[in-house]
Task: inverse folding
């Protein structure tokens, strides 16, 4: 993959921060957008703007075709059986809330929901709220010392059992980078009659995805981490399951017939898309899917794997550097979280920014995981298809500078 040529399609990567070139290493937070995505959104507003499904004029037909065309592109991109299995939401958080609300509608006392301690808050809080409403019990996978799911402990504790109704796990951790064995866990969940929900936000943008082969019942992800716009996410679900689930939000377009006494609801996916949807954002997501498909997801995955291995070797050689998560690029994503001895992550983030390196500091919406690891917070560097080896070198140099600035004992 010619990363230099690829970077030319991302105008923002030419920016400078003072005297330093921008080194963007916060793609797990949000990815940058290629010009084709920016143009697609602008052209929609400039030439085709109208509401979908309602307006019968030419612009309405064009907008509807573009919106539903984006749905078809996403379905093909993730290996869905049919476009109607793709529900557009505001973001992955809303998609996971939809799953918790609608999939969990029949839960009651004695039922159990299983998550893990490595989840993003968006895959913790909705299930907490569900269990509080239903009187169900929330349980979770622990992790091993190297940041993997503790499958042996889970087996010993019979974490997934005949009372389990839903298992919801991240595919790739946004902190540890750990890639979880979703297909194996889905098989265990299905063996006891439970549903499998997957937070794919850190996986779908980075690797070839086949939701059917994954064995999940629902997969959620978001556009803005995969070169698309903010304001739109995706819930994929098996059609027969979606057809059984009650609506999440009420309003226009999600209905079949409305009477004053009662209403009936549209078939999936529109049952879950109340009101005017994110039309221009869907057009942008469709353009992002075309862009990623053109580059090749296998090539993107191979580039990131090699780059992550390089970064792990480079960064772990720094004295005072503590890695959170797997130390080898095996079943691992590209997010690398760490701490520098004697330096708060917010100070690391600020000083790196002064040298043009954009990273994230904090608990990354995963506070329970940080508490489990014994860290108040951490610093995270995350790469993507446009990241270069030179940018990893710039990160390493900036970290050494920062460490020495705050901790004189490391100076020569």
Result:
């Amino acid at each position: 993959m010619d990363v230099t040529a690829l970077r030319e399609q991302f105008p923002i990567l030419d920016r400078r921060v003072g005297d330093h070139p921008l080194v963007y290493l916060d793609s797990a937070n949000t990815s940058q957008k290629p010009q084709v995505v920016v143009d697609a959104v602008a052209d929609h507003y400039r030439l085709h703007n109208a509401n979908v499904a309602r307006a019968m004029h030419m612009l309405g037909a064009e907008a509807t075709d573009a919106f539903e065309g984006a749905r078809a592109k996403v379905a093909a991109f993730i290996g869905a059986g049919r476009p109607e299995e793709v529900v557009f939401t505001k973001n992955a958080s809303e998609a996971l809330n939809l799953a918790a609300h609608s999939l969990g509608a029949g839960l009651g006392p004695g039922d159990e929901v299983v998550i893990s301690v490595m989840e993003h808050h968006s895959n913790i809080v909705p299930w907490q709220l569900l269990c509080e409403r239903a009187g169900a019990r929330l349980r979770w996978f622990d992790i091993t010392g190297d940041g993997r799911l503790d499958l042996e402990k889970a087996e010993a504790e019979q974490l997934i059992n005949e009372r389990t109704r839903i298992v919801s796990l991240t595919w790739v951790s946004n902190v540890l980078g750990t890639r979880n064995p979703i297909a194996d866990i889905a098989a265990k969940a299905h063996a006891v009659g439970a549903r499998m929900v997957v937070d794919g936000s850190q996986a779908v943008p980075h690797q070839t995805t086949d939701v059917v082969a994954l064995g999940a019942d629902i997969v959620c992800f978001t556009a803005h981490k995969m070169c698309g716009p903010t304001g739109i996410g995706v819930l994929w679900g098996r059609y027969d399951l979606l057809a059984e689930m009650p609506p999440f939000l009420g309003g226009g377009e999600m209905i079949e017939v409305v009477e004053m006494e009662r209403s009936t609801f549209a078939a999936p996916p529109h049952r879950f898309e109340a009101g005017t949807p994110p039309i221009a954002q869907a057009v942008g997501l469709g353009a992002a899917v075309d862009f990623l498909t053109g580059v090749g997801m296998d090539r993107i995955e191979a580039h990131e794997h090699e780059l992550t291995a390089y970064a792990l070797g480079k960064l772990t050689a720094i004295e005072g550097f503590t890695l959170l998560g797997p130390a080898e690029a095996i079943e691992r994503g590209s997010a690398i979280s760490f701490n520098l001895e004697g330096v708060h992550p917010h100070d690391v983030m600020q000083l790196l920014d002064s040298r043009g390196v954009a990273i994230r500091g904090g608990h990354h919406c995963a506070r329970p995981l940080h508490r489990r690891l014994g860290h108040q917070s951490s610093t995270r560097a995350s790469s993507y298809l446009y990241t270069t080896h030179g940018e990893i070198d710039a990160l390493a140099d900036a970290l050494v500078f920062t460490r020495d600035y705050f901790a004189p004992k490391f100076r020569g």
The first strand starts at residue 16 and ends at 17.
